Amino acid sequence: MNLNFLESVKRQFAYYKQLGDKTFMQLNDEDFFWQYNQESNSIATIVKHLWGNMLSRWTDIFTTDGEKEGRNRDSEFENDLQSKDEVLQKWEEGWNRLFETVNSLSESDLERIIYIRNERHTVLEAINRQLAHYPYHVGQIVFVGKMIQNEKWNSLSIPRNKSNDYNQTKFAQEKKRKHFTDED
């Protein structure tokens, strides 16, 4: 294991945050609170849940359980945020907490033991757990945004029916290392 893993993790998390950011730029204030039906979550609710999870999982990871005593997960699914600004503040606060912690990690930390809901994880396992969880919810955010925008949606990756054009451009270039700020 080496620091390339941690750099890769940072790029992965940054990529998924960027997908959310690009979705938010396409939405107006009321879109953040739209729900397909009563059982579905609005973007605001999904963000609130991610925020609660990120603060809980990435605060004091070596000294407290990743499920903090003060966290009320159920309340994260109550749609009580009032504005787009409030949603974006929670979005940034959660990601900032994650990046502060991940940026502080060293290679030797990856095998250290931490606990989430009293279950033992290495830091590496905890990172992988969240690399599965956060993209799942960011995908929901993108999907809801796409439903709201419909034909006005600006693709976040290769637009429909443009794969051949994209591939021709890519294969005409010199080989290079993939960075998650590139289009997929």
Care to describe what's here?
With 184 residues, this protein is mainly alpha-helical. Helix content is 52%, strand content 4%. The protein is built from 5 helices and 2 strands; from the N terminus they run H-H-H-E-E-H-H. It has helices at 3-24, 43-58, 84-104, 123-149, 163-171, and strands spanning 113-116, 119-122. The protein has a two-stranded antiparallel sheet with strand order 1-2. Helix 1 runs parallel beside helix 4. 23% of the residues are buried. The mean pLDDT is 93.
What is the percent of helical residues? 40-55%
What's the helix-strand series? HHHEEHH
Strand content: under 5%
Structural class: mainly alpha
Contiguous low-pLDDT stretches (5 residues minimum) are: none
Radius of gyration, whole Å: 18 Å
Number of E strands: 2
Shape: flat
Strand order of the largest sheet: 1-2
Q: Sheet bearing the most strands, described?
A: 2 strands, antiparallel
| Terminal-residue CA separation | 26 Å
Describe the secondary structure blueprint for this structure.
Layout: H1 3-24, H2 43-58, H3 84-104, E1 113-116, E2 119-122, H4 123-149, H5 163-171
Antiparallel strand pairs: 1-2
